[in-house]
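Duplicate of #3305? Posting structure anyway:
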């Protein structure tokens, strides 16, 4: 009963335009007021305990670092750097877009930031060079999904808070799936561009310019590598790594690129505070949601019902993949993680899926929701950049989104893709 009540109230308030965080809060508080008023005085404590997490300190720090790097001219340098990386395969701006998203995702940890920053530069430039608007937009939004899979990743940090899995292990677990998405998208982009003649004619290589571009881009490009290494090898925690990343970004911005200003730092801090505040509100109200379900043993009941189905394991896993894709279409990443992890985790454990593999499956699946209408956040950001309808952008992204779906199925049935690296680094699986 509780599950039905919470979902009905949540859906009704969401449909009438109430922000999702408050829709969750209203559904939970109204349930407690109507059916368990004696628990009302515990709600503030539950909200506070849900928000008070040392692990979550890392998320705003990584966001702030990404904003700082955006303000110091990273985007243009990154695109120039990637043009030389794809030159050996005669790649054009489509391939540049995907490779840049791989690197940018490792810097910002945000798919939406990836779409916003790279899309505002690359989409108009791709259209100038003969790419159809739908393809230019589709490549941009689809490749940006790697931002929340390739470490450092804010959703991975949130998943760690919910499950107790190591942040470092989750970062490493997402590395191969994220790179695999990029490689498959590169292959699709290459075939489409080759077939339609979107690849530019090779000009004579200016070695001096290439070396200059590589050297000036290197300080930003190596940042994700440094972050993954220091967290994965236990040199510092994810929160400490976030602080180091912010300090590094300030040094690069002020003293290496010399394009960062105090005004830009304040603007970056303001954006980070707004993003963090919205996430914390969602976390607080979602904590009540999961607490009520746990009290009523909803996760255990759902897991028992699901596992009692007389279906082979592979069929159950495919159903779970489809469920994640379906829910990700209508619910944004943060609330989906907070509300669904406690429900799906017992099912995954019953099927022999480790928390690390579950984290990779869940986040790769939810990332696809960013490019599927109607909620897809990356679609909405891209719509503001080029003015195309969300459906047209989604159609352009479809061939590349199928690469994400293929990777989702692969990591579901080949655990080594997500747990091999953590095992190699002696993490507990």
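Output from current build:
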């Amino acid at each position: 009963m509780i599950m039905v009540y919470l979902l009905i109230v949540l859906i009704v308030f969401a449909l009438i335009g109430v922000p999702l965080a408050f829709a969750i809060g209203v559904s939970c508080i109204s349930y407690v007021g109507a059916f368990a008023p004696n628990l009302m005085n515990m709600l503030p404590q539950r909200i506070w305990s849900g928000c008070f997490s040392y692990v979550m300190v890392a998320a705003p720090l990584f966001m702030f670092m990404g904003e700082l790097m955006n303000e110091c001219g990273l985007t243009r340098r990154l695109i120039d750097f990637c043009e030389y990386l794809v030159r050996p395969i005669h790649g054009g701006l489509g391939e540049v877009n995907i490779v840049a998203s791989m690197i940018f995702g490792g810097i910002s940890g945000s798919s939406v930031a990836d779409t916003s920053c790279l899309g505002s530069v690359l989409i108009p430039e791709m259209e100038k060079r003969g790419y159809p608007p739908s393809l230019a937009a589709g490549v941009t939004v689809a490749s940006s999904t790697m931002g929340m899979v390739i470490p450092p990743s804010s959703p991975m940090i949130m998943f760690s808070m919910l499950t107790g899995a190591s942040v470092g292990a989750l970062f490493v677990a997402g590395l191969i799936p994220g790179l695999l998405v990029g490689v498959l998208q590169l292959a699709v982009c290459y075939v489409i561009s080759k077939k339609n003649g979107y690849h530019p004619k090779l000009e004579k290589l200016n070695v001096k310019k290439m070396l200059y571009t590589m050297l000036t881009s290197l300080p930003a490009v190596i940042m994700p590598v440094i972050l993954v290494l220091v967290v994965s090898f236990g040199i510092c925690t994810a929160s400490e790594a976030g602080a180091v990343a912010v300090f590094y970004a300030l040094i690069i911005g002020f003293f290496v690129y010399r394009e960062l200003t105090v005004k830009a730092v304040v603007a970056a801090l303001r954006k980070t505070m707004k993003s963090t505040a919205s996430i914390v509100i969602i976390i607080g109200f979602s904590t009540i949601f999961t607490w009520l379900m746990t009290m009523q043993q909803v996760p255990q009941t759902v897991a028992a019902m699901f596992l009692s189905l007389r279906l082979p394991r592979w069929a159950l896993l495919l159903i779970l993949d489809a469920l994640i894709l379906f829910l990700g279409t209508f619910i944004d990443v943060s609330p989906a993680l907070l509300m669904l992890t406690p429900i799906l985790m017992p099912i995954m454990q019953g099927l022999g899926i480790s928390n690390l593999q579950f984290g990779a499956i869940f986040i790769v699946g939810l990332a696809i929701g960013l490019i599927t209408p109607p909620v897809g956040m990356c679609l909405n950001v891209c719509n503001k950049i080029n003015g195309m309808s969300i459906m047209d952008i989604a159609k352009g992204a479809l061939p590349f989104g199928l690469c994400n779906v293929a990777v989702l199925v692969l990591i579901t049935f080949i655990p080594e893709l997500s747990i091999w690296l953590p095992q190699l680094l002696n993490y507990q699986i």
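Confirmed duplicate; merging threads. The mean pLDDT is 85. Residues 231 and 237 are 6 Å apart (CA to CA).
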